[in-house]
């Protein structure tokens, strides 16, 4: 019996009791007395988000919060429909692709207005894509295979590739660290003006208070029916105020009290309260995504693969997911990175998943001559489920003989620190579920925090990315997944659903991984 089990036995608790206790911690938070009043006009929406965005540049960050706000301002050539298939947005149609997969010819929609009033043209697109290739992890991954971007008239774009990139359109469609199209004259590092083509334009940012977007009267909408993020977009609400509300339970109480029209990323244990309140509607996205832990393979204890493997063996994924989400109807502990309906479904490498084997982990640590350096776990309470998983993770590691240091910071600080290999060993994050392996997590690309670069990774991904046939790509993905479980650059904890809530006055919100407020109205 482990030390933790002995302590629980003496207290009369089980491991499941402990996990549920962690999941329920901190539920007494309420709205601050005398809290700041926000605009309550019929066409002004107050949207409670998980915190302060560290940037409004959609290429400078892969954080979901940044993309959720700025995808209302910036659009991309392609976007996702409700089934996560790529569909044209600023592109007039799907591209013409050469037989060898190395040439994409894209026609850009005519008559699309930038927020400055000028018409969008191919030079804006090329300048934006070049910036995306230079700045973002996924853009760099694509850019390694780009020979040239060439204008064909004022609205034609030719993308010549050195090698086929089967996931090119889905890379462009992803709204996280995404290929946002912006006015070429606004491009700078850092951005100081935000000139896009979206249904909303940037108006004002007051740090720690709100980001204000206002309706763009010159917006050029597509004519197709709305479908996920694709099709017609209409700004029915005059103002969108994205308000940082770091405490999850304050977001719950705020939307129940009518202070907010929308509250994002709520604890799943608040579902009954929300569903039982007439003035509020729950919004459940399932499957939404997966939490994962990124290991620093560059320096520190986890530069040693054997120590990373010991870490993996020590983890109880089911306990962590239970602590995070409280009820197994909101999560699934699974070794497969993709569901059975996906062509990328595979169980490869999964024999080491969810083992919770402290003895086997201790044996590996002894073989690796682990020197007792603390494992620094970087996490944030702004995503409450991140912190709950970190608490259980810490106990799993202690049982296996690791020393542990929990570093709890705000989300913006975590995003900043994860770029510095000297200050952490593992950080807690999550990703929305996406249909293409190369989209998420970013550690599959080059240069992302974690710095996973090995010959086996490069060879497996080269084979995977060179294949365009979906069936063959599925089999090749299994080989990549097997390497992930062997080399342990990150731990994919499991699948989970996400809960948010709207005022009953809000209509038209479609449950999607990143909430979109075009086509949404307030009664």
Q: Can you characterise this structure?
A:
This protein has 523 residues and is an alpha+beta fold. Helices cover 29% and strands 20% of the residues. The longest helix has 18 residues, at 470-487. A hairpin with a 3-residue loop joins strand 6 (146-152) and strand 7 (156-161). The chain has 15 helices and 20 strands. The termini are far apart. The strands form four sheets. Strands 1, 8, 9, 10, 11, 12, 13, 14, 15, 16, 17 and 18 form a twelve-stranded mixed sheet that branches. The radius of gyration is 23 Å and the shape is globular. Helix 2 runs parallel beside helix 10 (317-325) and helix 10 packs antiparallel against helix 12 (384-399). The relative contact order is 0.16. Residues 6-42 have low confidence and may be disordered.
Q: What share of the residues does DSSP label as strand, in percent?
A: 15-25%
Number of helices: 15
| Poorly predicted ranges | 6-42
Structural class, please? alpha+beta
End-to-end separation in angstroms reads 59 Å
Q: How much helical structure, as a percent, in the residues?
A: 25-40%
- Mean of pLDDT: 90
Biggest beta sheet attributes: 12 strands, mixed
Shape: globular
Total strand segments: 20
TL;DR of this structure?
This protein is of the alpha+beta class and 523 residues long. The protein has helices spanning 3-11, 15-24, 64-70, 122-135, 137-143, 168-173, 248-257, 271-275, 305-314, 317-325, 358-368, 384-399, 411-417, 455-466, 470-487, and strands spanning 44-49, 78-80, 86-88, 96-97, 103-107, 146-152, 156-161, 200-206, 210-215, 239-244, 262-266, 280-295, 331-332, 375-379, 404-408, 426-432, 490-492, 495-503, 506-507, 521-522. It contains 15 helices and 20 strands.
